[in-house]
Amino acid sequence: MADLNRDSKKRSGRHGRNKSKNMIRSGFDHKPKTLNQPAVICSICNKQLFDMSNALANRTDGTPVHFDCALEKIKAEETPGPMEHIAYIGKGSFALIEYKDKSMSSFFIKRKIPWEKEGEEYSWRKDVLHSFEL
Question: From 15, 26, 54, 67, which residue has the greatest number of CB atoms within 10 Å?
């Protein structure tokens, strides 16, 4: 008898059925507006930036660069040791971290490596924020 009722119920809620319908009805949409702007080129690798929300400002001129390009450039400059790692800690800064043991479950920051100028506002980043309506 329980099997007969299971098919007749409309399922929604936490089980995820009808999720897309509920999201459309509530106006819940994560897609940013498309910007009609020219392609932006990374000043480190000279390739196009497709996801501006993941871009960082270049150290020298503030132009947008790929996050991975900035990370690779810092790794080339710093050359971390066997128990060290370069990690992004937020607000445009990286850090040289050292793990306390081989399990790599705890670490401490040996040195902070600033990438972006603190407090600097970049016009290209404002355009990204406006595309998300933030």
Answer: 67
